[in-house]
Amino acid sequence: MPATSRTADARSAGDGAPEGLATLLEQARAAFRSDQARVVEVCLEQALRLLRAGEPVEAPPAGGLARWQIDRVTAHVRDHVQEPIPVSALAAAARLSPRHFTRRFRASFGETPLAYVTRRRIEHAQTLLLARATPLAVVALKAGFSDQAHFTRVFKRATGASPAAWLRRQGAPVLQRACA
Q: pTM of the entire structure?
C-alpha cells in the first residue's frame, strides 16, 4: 500500500500505532472535511479506546505475517469492504497460498480472515450508521453484506444489539421509516 501523507502522519503520530487507529484517524479527517462533527467525535472516541485497549504494536509473533503482508492485507480489506473478499484474494495480497496464509493470519491477528473481514465490515457499518443519512439497506450493501436481513443478523451477533438499538446506545437518534 503506498503511504499517503495522511497515513504516514497517522502512523508516525502513534509510533507504530495500530492499523485500526490509522484508519479511524483517516475517517475522522474525512468526516471533518464534510462537516460531520458527530462522526468525528465517535471516530476519535474509538481511537482512544483502541489505544487504551493496548493492541499489540510490536513485531508479529513467530509464524505470523510480516509487517508488509499485514499492511497489504489490511489495505485490501479496507479498500474492498463493499465487495466479496475471498481468502484467496487476501492470500494473493500477502503472496502466500490460501492455506499457509490462513495459518499465518491467525497467528498474527488471533482470529480467522473471515472473522477479521466481518469485524471490519461491522466497524464500517457503524461509521455509516452514525452518519445517519444512509438507509439501513444501503448501509448493509456498502458494508459488504448481501442484504439488510443478513446485515442485521451479523450486526446483532457481533454487537449484541440490532442496528437501531446500537444507535440508541450511542446516543444517536434513530431515523424512523416514512409512513405512506
A: 0.64
